[in-house]
Amino acid sequence: MFHVQDLLLAEPLLRAVDGLPEARAEGLCRPGDGDPAGWLVLLDLTELSRSPLADGDTSSVADLLRTCRGAAALLCRCDSVPQSLRSEAVRARLPIIHVPPTVTPMRLITLVHELSADRGQSRAWRRLSALGTLAEALGSKAPEQSLLTKYWETTKNVGVVLSQDGEIVASVGELPVRTIERTVRGEDPVAREFHVGRWLLSAFPIEPEPASWSTGAGLWLVVGKRSSSGVGHVSRSAPVASALMQLLGVAARSRRQHSRAEQLRDSRVVSELVFGGPDPERLELQLHARGFPKDLAYRVVVAGRGIVPTDPGVAVEAVELAAGHNVPVIVSTLERAIVMITADPGASILDQILATLPSPVGVSDLGATVAAGPALYRQARVARASASLADETSGSSGWAHFTRCRPLPQAVGRLDTAALQAVAKPVDDRLEQTSGGAEFGGALVEEGFDVRAVAKRIHVHPNTVRNRVAALLGDGVLERSDLELWYFAREAMC
Questions:
Q1: Cα–Cα distance between 487 and 485 in angstroms, integer?
Q2: Closest CA to 235 of 198, 196, 193
Q3: C-alpha dist (Å) from residue 318 to 309, 329, 331
Q4: 188 or 413: whose pLDDT is higher?
């Protein structure tokens, strides 16, 4: 005996029509060969073209199926299974496997003979066969969806793949996905069986890599069938389900490794552009390969503070929005901020992209050469500092364009590193002698020298702030403008 599903694994051209139970078969026979109970019955409709069956004669179909009562399955060799046969087979509870005419009866006899041999009884062989059948889907653009579709074609079990956070990665069949998502989301990664409406479902956690669940990269595979099918829950050890879980892990692992490689490559391009790379010609070619125009009209954008470099969701919305408008962008994280290199898409689209980034956001002027990268980076950092201030330079949008900043930050943004250090040094020296140091100086500028706002921010009494301001500026050596100049110089320096 052998598992009927093994026939579909051994010959991928065969397809279950309306579901296939996990039954066993004794062998292969034809109608009229004797008692068909527990056997596969071959209905070769290519030989019955002149029979009433081909004309949809319901009574003839019913008579034919009565001779097949108790069969493990009907193998219908034809171009397409007649609807009359499908309907009568459902009533008779006889599963149908469609056999295309390209699969000869001799091929079916050979398959059944091989499956009846010892190797067909081996669970390991069945799993390897399932791996071979499903693995073809790994080469598609959406491997999770293709794998799940192949699984459904082989077993007729419906299923859904969910991310650990409940996002739908792939699905097949009319499952109540949102109810399933609420059932498994947030649960420990342990296989479970449950019942939702008319569905008997099994949920299996997929961990592409060790500790995937702790990093939010885990997946849930939920598969099942109607409760009316008379078959229980899908077992984790079922060969096809086991193969599907393994290949879903392979697909997810490959996707993450590809994502890491892309992040590393983008980080290298961004770093070489904003810090000055050793090979500007190669860097220019890399930008052109990413879709940037030949004249390299690009901007540097710096956004947010305290960004975690390994966050997989960094600027995803901005990248997707840019892609939707065919705007080339390269994103990385530098000095705990998002740094984006973007072609010039026009003011309207650029503002839409900036709105998706964490504030404060600074945007540089346009650059036309890779040599301008470090200067544009300084401009973007100064503009981000302007967007942080509690005055008219930032407005309500949370971002600032360098060319729209006040004259002071614009002047600072055009200085080189040596000049910036010279500008900042006198204030740095004085702040070293003041309680709170650079943190206090930055709070003063960002809060517009509002004593109460600064006191609330650094958690001290307002009189303490007044005393520190007097120590910092009271002797007339430094003025407020010097502190603002220092603030923008410090922000501009890398």
A1: 5
A2: 193
A3: 16, 9, 9
A4: 413
Residue 325 identity? H
Identity of residue 364? S
Q: What are phi and psi of 98, to 5 degrees?
A: -80, 130
Lowest mean pLDDT among 134-138, 255-259, 315-319: 255-259
The two most distant CA atoms of the chain are separated, in Å, by 113
241 phi/psi in degrees, rounded to 5? -65, -40
The pLDDT mean for the chain works out to 83
Contact by Cβ (8 Å): 51, 147:
no
Task: Give Cβ neighbours of residue 263 (< 8 Å, ≥ 6 apart).
Answer: 332
Q: Which pTM does this prediction carry?
A: 0.52
CA distances from 232 to 22, 89, 194 (A): 10, 22, 11
How many other CB atoms are found less than 10 A from the CB of residue 137?
20
Percent of the chain with pLDDT over 70: 87
Backbone angles phi, psi at 363, to 5 degrees: -125, 130
- Per-residue CA distances from 393 to 206, 349, 397, 409, 482 (Å): 49, 21, 10, 10, 18
Condensed to tens digits (0 to 9), the pLDDT of residues 271-287 reads 999 998 888 888 988 88
Q: Which two tokens stand for residue 228?
A: 């009316």
